[in-house]
Amino acid sequence: MSYRIQNFKKVNHTTVKASFDIDFGAVKVRGFNLIETTNHGRFISAPSEKYQKDGQPKFKDIAILTDDLVRARIYADIKTLYAAEPDPQPQPSHSVGYHSDDDIPFD
């Protein structure tokens, strides 16, 4: 099966390390993530939707990579892209306040 990884981007988040889309030719699936946790290590997370069950948040995958060989090839390609991509720069914190340097008088 042929595919292309598109829109790969490292992100500066605690567990989400990168986001990307996969184009399978006739179908493009958006919203994959590279996840890293202390319990499960690093893995690919398929696009999912969030819902509530018994008052608890749950997630249901929208797309599933069912072929183990294709999943392994995609994971190998993602690891290569992740290693080659520079780390994202931390975003500056935004402060709230007012400062004006203009000398326009108000009457």
Main beta sheet, described? 4 strands, antiparallel
Structural class estimated from helices and strands? alpha+beta
Number of domains: 1
The overall strand count is: 6
The CATH C-level class name = Alpha Beta
CATH topology annotation? Arylsulfatase, C-terminal domain
- Figure out the total of helices: 1
Mean pLDDT: 85
Report the C-alpha radius of gyration, rounded.
20 Å
Shape: globular
Helical content class: 10-25%
CATH homologous superfamily - what is it?
Stage V sporulation protein G
Poorly predicted residue ranges? none
CATH architecture classification name: 2-Layer Sandwich
Write the H/E string, N to C: EEEEEEH
Spatial strand order of the main sheet: 1-2-3-4
Question: How would you describe this structure to a colleague?
Answer:
The structure is a single chain. By secondary structure, this protein is an alpha+beta fold. It has one helix at 68-84, and strands spanning 4-10, 16-23, 28-37, 41-45, 48-53, 56-61. Strand 1 (4-10) and strand 2 form a beta hairpin.
Secondary structure layout:
Layout lengths: L3 E7 L5 E8 L4 E10 L3 E5 L2 E6 L2 E6 L6 H17 L23
Antiparallel strand pairs: 1-2, 2-3, 3-4, 5-6
Care to give the gist of this entry?
The protein is α+β, with helices and mostly antiparallel strands and 107 residues long. It has a single domain (4-84), classed as Stage V sporulation protein G (Arylsulfatase, C-terminal domain), CATH 3.30.1120. It has one helix spanning 68-84; strands spanning 4-10, 16-23, 28-37, 41-45, 48-53, 56-61.
